[in-house]
Amino acid sequence: xxxxxxGIKPLKRDDAHTLDLAAVALVRELSHxxxxxxxxxxxxxxxxxxxxxxxxWPLEPTALIIEVHPCPERALSDGAQSLNLDELPP
Length: 90
Known about the structure:
29% helix, two-stranded parallel ribbon, 5 strands, 13% strand, alpha/beta
């Protein structure tokens, strides 16, 4: 079992997502379970994944989930929040 922060979708805007960095830090303090963060889903935008990942890293999540697709523009779902395989850092 793991705990995963995937962000929330605010009620007022359809195009916004909120990744809760404080939740990652708090859950790491309160739980013995691994804490995974999903900056792809949590931001909802490809161009924010790298920055969100950097912001999460000092909080020491057990892992990050980053969506990738060989051609995000043609993905059947979540293309806007997926990196192209070439964009995935080593």
